[in-house]
Amino acid sequence: MSEAEEVSRAVSALYGSNAQQQAEANRWLMAFAERPAAWDVCRELVLAGPAQEIQFFGANVLHTKVRREWHGLALEARQQAFGALSALVVAAVRREQPNGMTAGLATRMLVSKRLCLALGAAAAQQAELCAPCVQMALELGTGEHGPAGAIAAFALLCALVDEVELLANGAAGGGGYGVHSSAGGGASPLQPPPSPQQHASASTARASAFDLRPFATPVAQLVEAHVATAAGRMPPLAELRRAALHCFRAWAALDGEALSVRALAARHASLLEGLLGALGEQDIAEAAADALCEVCSLEFVSLTVEQTDVHLAASIAERFLRLQPQLKQALAHRTGSSGAQADEWAAAFTRALGQFGACAARPLACASAGGSAESAQLQQLVLLMLESASYPTHAASENLVDAWVSLQDVPMHARVDAMRAPLYEQLLTVTITRCMWPDVRGARAARGVSSAATAAAAAGAAVAAADNGGGGDDDDDDDDERAEFEKWRHQSAAEVITCCLAALGGAFFSSALASLLPAEPPASAEAWTGAWRRIEVVAFALAAVHAELKSKLRAVESQPSAPPTTPTGSGSPLVASRASGAGALTLDKAAVDSALAQLLNIALALPAVAASAAHFPANGANGASGANGGRGGGGGGRGADIAAVVDWRLLPALCTFIGSFGSWVKARPQLIDRTLELLLAAAGAHAPCPGGGSELAASLAAVGRAVPAGAREAPRLHLTAAEAFRNVCAHCSAELAIGQHGGTSLVTVLVRRVCPLLNSGARIVVGDGGPCGQDARVPLAEALGRLVAAVEPIDANVATHALQELVGTPARSLRGLVSRAGESGAGVATAGGARKPAAELCAAMAHELQLITASVRFCDGDASRRSSRLVSMRASAAAAGAGAGASAPGVGGATFGTHPVSPLIAVISEVWPLLEELSVASGGDVLVVDALLDLLARAILCGKALLAGHLPQMLALAVDAFGATRALGALALFKAAIEVHGAALKLADECPTDAAGLDAAPPALRDALAHALAAMTVTALRPLLSAPSPLDGSGARAAGAASSTELRAAAAAEESEPQLLNDFFELMQRVLVFSPMLILGPLVQSASSTPHARTFAQVVDACARCVAHQEPTHTRASITFACQLVRGCADGTAPGAARKGCALPSTAIEPHGAMLTLSCLLGLTSFSAEGLVDHQCELLRVLLQCSAPHLSAQWLAAAFQHRALLEAVAPAGEANSELFLRLLVHRPPLKHDAIAREFSRMCRREGGVDGLGQFVPTA
Predict the structure, then answer these.
(1) Among 488, 514, 729, 1258, which one is most buried in terms of CB atoms within 10 A?
(2) Which residues of 263-273 are buried (b: 16+ CB within 10 A; e: fewer)?
(3) Are 500 and 585 contacting, i.e. CB atoms less than 8 angstroms apart?
């Protein structure tokens, strides 16, 4: 049996149904594909394979071997392989040529397409083959090979560009040897690892890209011949035209200037006409849109207001306008069986329209309005864009966002009148109308807005539909559709609304918004039924533009404004702003204030309305949960009224609006209490607040039980309200800190009000914010924690009691969870026989820890900052007290400056035993450990020197947790400890500096830091240090030195935890800056027998191994650390430590210099990604310049004896390697980093053979 027959049998087994035979065939085929004989065998399979899958396997192996082994072939062998591949492509095309039946032709051409990929990969790696490759494609496309030849030609041209881009980006990967991934739909069982040569061809690929550009014109002509339809000639096959369009898109991306829309109009007018015509054909519209978007890319072209560009824009606009009836037809067909196809075509059409609109923004905005035909066409195109924005699918609207944003780049004074306020008023109306909830969108879709001129009428009809109850509730809508709608609103629609604000200025408030917001708050539940959707969309719009609005207000805040007012029924300020002519491009601050106050006043009316409608049984027994979710159907009753008042879509919008304008609420103290009442009620608080009763909270709870949508959406509502409460408290913390209610601090009242909410875990939004969901209680705890921090300078007693009560709630819950975890038989048995708490219990523990962290994160323990806040608060409160004839606020006789003990210290001291017990009871669960370490790190940063007494215990706990789980939070905790106690204690100078140069910290603290660092180093570097370094053996070419393949295998294992290595070396950088003697102390003391003497050697050894790694993040961190360390040793001073006693011996780095040098050279010559080369060149420069000349010469000589490095530098040649060494050791020193960078290019086959000659000094 011949080898080709054996391969055929193995491939057949691979496609069989026997799993064991498939696995055996897979292994055998993988081994076969690595053999040199596979080239000839696969060529035979392609030519004479008995089945298509066998032919495809042969073509696929050839493609993979070209990618992996092309650079290993001799030049003559490459030429022969390229010729053989070309012949195989032609033979496959002839075999696949259709005999009468052309349908499905592209899917039958698997073999020829795969061969085209191989041919393109070969040409991309060898610049001189690009011209023959393109020429062959042109012959296939224009010769006698028919449709199959043309499709193959376009596949070859696409493959060439794709391979060039892959290599240029350093991302070329070996394709699978098997056929499942392409023909069977599964994962390829024969996926090879990437080849070293794949990372050595970026420069060659860029050169190939440069060489391809001269072929852009003939390629465009080939595409033009197959896309453009001449008069009297039938259009080519759709499959063929689609292939041509894909090819053109790829080449346009490669050379956008030569194939831009402007260049096409000048040199390939019929091709541009063909692209626009293809956009109207259902089968190829998507491919045509891809091509049009590429030629209109803003990266290469932006049309100007010159006459030629205006004429071009108008001619293209005319072609788009021809498709306007087709857009109307698509809208009409949406409800039929072809609705999906209509939406797909509309998405492609609007994508091309939006990209062209962005490209032609200046002609569209500035074309003369003198009545010319061109001006009319451009203005009609803008109206078409408005009409397309009304198409019901979100994709159609999203596709036009770039066009509206690009129009904003054109100054208003340069535009024609129609492109100013009138355009944006219509755009705002269309967008706001679409932003109403789905029943309103359904009403609009049924009407089918056909032009911008009818947008306002459609908006009025939509509002009328909302007033009449709409078309039903969306509670039963598909979750995916609702998520898509919300995503579109918060991304695309918000961006368009922001553009409208920037363009309209004051008119923004007097356009679409004025007709939507009622002049007075609805006074009854019945009135809310028809108004809630309009109120909700206005709240959403104002929250969406809050950043832009604040920016504009800052520009005019120096202007005097009217006193802030709260409307009480005297008419709508939105309507008033229109009547007073506030439609200029600048904002009237008074009008904005009135508009915001009006909406807030409507929101604050909710509790009173809820109270009037809340008289129904708490379980909703009298019809609240009717067929329509309690909204007017199935019995109606008070339950339906309440559901309308507290609709689960209205309240989140109002809460988001309030949270976005927290600074505005701060300027109106009379609104703060009522605002907090609304937010806490929405968050679920039932106890009364100083600002009013809790009727709304009771109504929300009742509806949550009665209406299914309420129960489902309650956690998200609670989260939104809690975040808004946090924002308002952040802005109003000073006002709330000095506030009193009935002789009690307002902060104490708020803490007591909110603490019951912290008992419940039902406010966790599953699927958001991390592996255990996002807890709506955390923002509440953060808000109160900020208020506690604000009240601390006024009265530490109040702050301490409030923080204890705030932390006490989750602490009690946590204690109960720990008790449950310790119950006999609880949890899940682990492999070691121990029992670990159930996942739900661990998640609950993590949530309670997050609450404690949120409560203490703002308790600043820095005495100087507390003192500055104290002076400021004292002055403001004293001034207020003098005006009112009262003493400064205080509780229990406490006065300003009374700080018996820090609230943070009191709280941490109370919960510390619980935290120690938790660390054991959690069984090492990752969620619990991460949350616990985050709490401790935050406490260290906040408490600073005040927590120094607890630090040894915290470090011990972190070391144990890191050893058990390798949790990254332990490194973050140690980093916090170093930042606080490595620098702050020095500057405070609380104790004399130790003679050995260690930080001025108590001995126990210094010992704890040193022990923790040593233990964490051993744990973090265990995978690296568990085996001998593969970099050893650098002194000989003998068998002891590892090859480049062995080094790469070792590096792959060492890089298994890149994030941990990155965090570790970043920590080491902080140690060098803040407390360097923790790792350098043994060197200074010459005490190699100390317990931590090996820390330095371990860190540098690991660093040297990582310098040549592939993963960029931790490799950069290790290089940065090495540079810091080498510079510090060269200066004789620890980096960042200029104090006496920190001097380092100049020989500190000597034992590690050879390994660092070798690793650096390996990385920059071939091992590491191209983006790391500059960093490695910098490290090499630092090593050479910061060491004695004889040492650097020894390190370099030893490195160039290592087997792996000799293999890596082989492409540069022996002569260039010797020259590289001479240049590096030259005295006076030359530009080491530039020399290394050029040598790197030569070793990676990216530079010329004489590239180092430019650095040779002249006589």
Answers:
(1) 729
(2) bbbeebeebbb
(3) no
Cβ distance 1159 to 1136 under 8 Å?
no
Nearest CA-CA partner of 521 in 674, 330, 698, 738: 674
Q: Which residues pair with 740 in a beta bridge?
A: 745
Give Cβ neighbours of residue 1256 (< 8 Å, ≥ 6 apart): 1219, 1223
CA 361 to CA 356: how far, in whole Å?
Answer: 8
Rounded to an integer, what distance in angstroms lies between the CA atom of residue 642 and that of residue 479? 24
Residue 532: CB atoms within 10 Å: 22
Reading the block at residue 597, the tokens are 């106050």
What the block records as the tokens of 841 is: 């219990």
* Structure tokens belonging to residue 1077: 């003697």
Cα 787 to its chain centre, rounded Å, is 32
pLDDT at 326: 92
The answer to whether residues 1255 and 1234 touch, using CB atoms and an 8 Å cutoff, is: yes
The model's pLDDT over 528-580, given as tens digits with 9 standing for 90+, comes to 777 888 899 999 999 999 998 888 877 766 555 444 444 443 344 343 333 33
Q: Which segments within 228-306 are labelled E, that is strand?
A: none
Q: Which residue has the tokens 């609009």?
A: 444
| Of the candidates 915, 1019, 1026, 908, the residue with the CA atom closest to the CA atom of residue 959 | 1019
pLDDT in tens, 352-369: 999 999 999 999 988 755
Task: Give the pLDDT score at 136.
Answer: 93
Q: Please report the pLDDT score of residue 1139 as a whole number.
A: 38
Collapsing DSSP states into helix, strand and coil, what is residue 686?
A: coil
Between CA 735 and CA 1111 the distance in angstroms is 50
CA 303/CA 319 separation, integer angstroms: 17
- SS3 state of residue 163: helix
Q: Residue 762 — φ and ψ, nearest 5°?
A: -75, -5
Amino acid (one-letter) located at 716: R
How far apart CA 149 and CA 226 sit, in angstroms, is 12
Amino acid letter for position 453: A
Give the model's pLDDT for residue 256.
Answer: 67
**Phi/psi class of residue 623: alpha, beta or left (left: φ > 0; alpha: ψ in -120 to 50)?**
left
Contact criterion met (CB below 8 Å) for 734 and 790: yes
> What single-letter amino acid sits at 529?
T
* Token reading at 678: 């609304």
Structure tokens that stand for 180 in this block: 């499942």
Per-residue pLDDT of 155-173, as tens digits, reads: 999 999 988 888 766 543 3
Report phi then psi at 9, rounded to 5. -65, -40
Residue 557: its pLDDT value, please?
A: 62
Q: What is the DSSP string of 1068-1079?
A: HHHHHHH-THHH
Geometric angle at alpha carbon 186, from 112 and 56, rounded to 5°: 20
- Contact between 1167 and 1105 (Cβ < 8 Å): no
Q: Quote the CA–CA distance of 66 and 64 in Å, as a whole number.
A: 5
> Which residues have C-beta within 8 Å of that of residue 840, sequence separation ≥ 6?
none
Indicate if the pLDDT at residue 500 is higher than 80: yes
Amino acid at 843: A
Angstrom distance (rounded) from CA 270 to CA 453: 34
Locate 349 and state its tokens: 């059409």
- Three-class DSSP category at 573: helix
DSSP class per residue in 732-796? HHHHHHT-EETTEEHHHHHHHHHGGGGG--TTEETTSSSTT-EETHHHHHHHHHHHHHHHTTT-H
| CA dihedral sign of residues 142, 144, 149, 150 | positive
Q: Return the pLDDT at 159.
A: 92
Nearest to 1110 by CA among 1031, 1063, 1176: 1176
Dihedral angle computed from the Cα positions of residues 797, 801, 806 and 809, in that order, rounded to the nearest 10 degrees: 160
**Is the Cβ–Cβ distance between 591 and 604 less than 8 Å?**
no
Distance of alpha carbon 4 from alpha carbon 44, whole angstroms: 7
Beta bridge partners of residue 745, listed in sequence order = 740
